[in-house]
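ASSEMBLY PREDICTION REQUEST
Request ID: AP-0331
Submitted by: J.K., bench scientist
Number of chains: two
Total residues: 675
Priority: normal
Notes: Please return the full assembly, not individual chains.
Input sequences:
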Amino acid sequence: MLEYTPDRRPTGGLRLPAHKEASTAQPIARGFVPRTLVLALQQHQGPPTTPVVRRGERVLRGQVVARARALRSAAVHASTSGHVRAIEDRLVPSVHAVHRTRCIVIDADGEDEPLPPGAGSAWPEDPEKQLKSIRDGGIVGLGGGVFPTAEKLGPQTPCKVLIINGVECEPYISCDDMLMREAAAEIVDGALIMRELLAAPECIVAVERDKPQAIEALLEAGRASGDASLRLADIPTIYPTGGERQLVEMLTGEEVPSTHYPSEIGYICQNVGTAFAVHRLVRAGEPLLSRVVTVAGDGIARPQNVETPIGTPIGELIEFCGGYRGDVDRLILGGSMMGYALPNDEMPITKGSNCLIAAARTEVRQDFSERFCIRCGNCGTACPARLLPQELLRAARDNDHALLDEFGLTDCIECGCCDVICPSHIPLTEVFRNAKFAHARYQRQEVFSAETQQRFRRHEERERADVQRGKDLQDQIRHEVETDEPARQQAIEAAIERARQRRSQDTDSE
Amino acid sequence: MLIGTVVLAGLALGLCAVLVLTDRLLPAGRDRVAEQVESLLPRIQCAQCGYPGCRPYAEAIAAGEADINRCPPGGEDTVRRLAEFLGREVVALDTTLGSASMNRVARIDEHNCIGCNRCVPVCPVDAVVGVQQTIHAVIAAHCTGCEICLAHCPVDCIDLIPRDA
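STATUS: Completed
Returned structure:
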């Protein structure tokens, strides 16, 4: 495997303190079996799955508990053995916020009994069946976007380059780093399997420069695989270069068009964790049952990376890491930039949960007093999407949707760089996040209004045409009567005849 | 001196003529304003403003004949946007006109519908389907909640329900 340094610099971004030392000091903790599982039916972007187990039923590790119907979906599996306690609505963290959604709750029996060997289906030959197998294996993008992997690997625009994303630039998160150090060979194998599925001529593994051990391990594994198409790109340590769009631009020089996916211009990005999960599925027949979660922050007794069964309640995971320590101010799911605060620790780890921060009071900003924008322009310099946050802020607070469109609100990736750099402590990202909801509602409304207007025009036209047709008919009769002399005489005589008859009837009845 | 006067006078007259002619020949100016005013309205065609549709109301506003507070479904938001666009004062919404809201849709109670077909032609957006002697139905995705059909139902079997229910 060839190591190279891309000659481009990322747009915008910030150098941030990494806060990863504590969690990378020891290997990934394995063998953790929770007491309860809360498995959300929808842990991916796409239609929810259908439960196939009943209350009271015993399930084994690896058993499908909810089946995927569409290709843009992913099955859910029991990640340990136990009995189904309930299928009910629970609060579950998803990509941007906590949602109430249907979950299968399982009481684990602690035996962690797997399905009998050979129960899982073997890796098929046919590419279409391979995609279905990935979907039924429950694999989604583990970088946090939870996009169904089968959909992303499916037939579409020819893939020019498969990019394996091991950049992991956000502070505190180190699960990908640890996985690359410990399972580099498996990741490379998973990458090659995906490359074959996509028929991609090239495959680049991108890793940030501040992860020398991971780079070393990957280079070793790449050499061992003997595949010449593999390259390793070392990426400068600037947040948020690991974002899909930023990474594609950094590696290829091509900007992903607004409102389009990178796959539409021929680049597929897959997280290293996803590559590992694909390897497990194909080589060992094991579906996605667990993921590595970074448990970090000064409020945790033993910060570390834990191989966590999907569905583990967060509280149990924290207990496994020695519990809380000292003055915990906030529990954050995700990294310190894009993560969000959780209301409690009863919610489960989902396929998209990469990091959990129990933040001590000293780690979290306490001063929320906002000051005036001094138009320093720092936010514009820091924005990796080349937006003008101060202009967007003005438009968002004025509810000026046309202006929001003009300044490209929908291109905001909510990375939080403008927030951090702002000397006036303006909560820009929060404003943009809220504005996006309002903007989407406004756009739906506009589409509806335009359609309604159209429908009304057609209705009016039809009505007008109806009236016109009536008039035309009248005119036609009048025209016939007036121009055709015999017909005119006939009509007059008929009228006289009718009148005479009526008169004679009247006299008869008298 | 004389030449200058003549030239300037000629120029002034000529330009006056051009201005007058363009004003006469291109009456589109007011139309364009009406069009933009219409785009600021919710365009659900409820007619509660007293005009037979959003376009006529927009034209009346553009001509300065109508107040900008006569759109119940648009609410205070629309009044504010119109005021800003036209450079007029923000006035309070006239709440006496009606209660049409884009958050509601009509629903026909199938137990009581007699298939009279009176609501079908009056729907401004053709959201009611059905022929005589059959039960009618509302296409919720097309219904604007304009309330026009309510008054035309002889058996009062049309209700307004929240849009996403």
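REVIEWER COMMENTS: The longest helix of chain A spans residues 428-483.
SIGN-OFF: pending second reviewer
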